[in-house]
Queue: 2 jobs
Job 1
Amino acid sequence: MAETIPLARPSIGDAERSAAQRVLSGTQLTSGPELKRFEALLAETSGRSHAIAMSSGTSALELALWAIGVGPGDAVLVTAFGFPAAANAVAARGATPVAVDVHEQSWLMDFEAAARAANSSTKAIVTIDQLGAVTSSREIDSLQLRTSLPVLSDAACGLGGTDADGRPGGVAGRMATFSFHPRKLITTGEGGAVVCDDEELAIRLRELRNHGQVGNGRFAGIGTNARLDECGAAIGCAQLARLAPMLTERRMLVDGYHQRLEHLRESGKLRWQVLADGSQHANQSFSIVLEKRLGRDAVVGALQAKGIGCGVATYSFAEIGIHKEAGLAPVAKSLHEGALSLPLYIGMRSAELDRVCDALAEVLS
Ligand SMILES: Cc1ncc(COP(=O)(O)O)c(C=O)c1O
């Protein structure tokens, strides 16, 4: 049988290898010049004044919530459809994540539903840049004004994408977070970051990620260790330098999927995310939703049996059985049940796109 086509694969080249080697040839393995360089590059890329690198996207979310004082008794509105890291981070702070449904077409937060759900217990709102689609910065700004609540943008998958106004993923909200897990647009191994424009918040986040220390041996309060190491930061610099060509390649691959799968879309067997005109999807994943009667799990099984690395696109946190007070989010539920991701990675060849699309057409026929 032909080799399995992976669902995803990080793109690590000579630049990343020599960056790691540079760190390993010295003695400073944490909190050094690579971290400073990476944070400066990241702030520039996301259009923010400050970037604070973290050990993961999840620790970035947790510390962002911590920094604005989210705690027991608070409710936080969270986009229902999206990896449950944001909802889990809210629960880890002792607060309750409340699900806000998404739009059928874009799979992004329904802002009217968010405004309706906000009440006196709500402490913050978390939007999620679903699979690389960037949430509208205009809508985020207006929701903050309408509700007087801070919006935290989980842009784990939105780095390098833009919204319909051409504003980059991570630019909107009181803070935004990124993940640099190997399945993301750039990787540091494990890693993440918070970006913001508020200097006091940036100082607070740096304290929280470093055991609450404000200087050597001086502690402002309780903190944790959420530091990104020098090797990760050095690899991150090399990856950020390649972000633009990597985004172009991802866009071309997704165009290739659209061309090859258009006949299945026209016949109503599947559909994909549709964004507002002018947005640029960062294409962290390419996901489709199948016509209900086709049964997503059976299709995933049949594709895997043909050597196609595919899987569930992502989850509605209201459906995973952990967050009992999440409430209902019917559109997110149907995406949770019906969406799947197809292989997408730098270096994917046109013959591999053909193989995935031919296999899908055969399974759906
Ligand atoms: C939308 C979203 N937010 C947060 C995370 C968590 O990131 P990490 O795995 O770096 O903790 C992920 C990871 O899959 C994600 O997809």
Job 2
Amino acid sequence: MMTETPPFTIEQFYKFVSEKKLMAAECVECGTMHLPPRPLCNGCFSSHMKWVELKSGGKLLTYTVIHIAPKRFESLAPYPVGIVELEDGLKLPGIIRDIEHEKISVGMRLEVGFETVESSGWPVWPRYFFKAP
Ligand SMILES: [Zn+2]
């Protein structure tokens, strides 16, 4: 039995990511999915939400290669970032890993992978990324 529903916040989204789960908030009233999660529905303004686990596959809608990266990603540059449309219809931005840049193409199938986080402290910002299925 669930004791308490976790809050519908971006922090909670990343807590799920640290558990290797991709979760979105679904409005119980009208079924609208929210990613990033939010406590109030865009569609009907209901606050009756539940967490649902998303399928981790989707197709690449668009991407770009980042050459000048923010500090914490500097060691990765140049790296591709893309927006993937998940099977549930939600769009998720993220870094694409382990695929040669020339082989990346719009429309290709990608899958969400999860990074293992070394730190045990909170807050940490565990990362998900996209990879070839
Ligand atoms: Zn709604």
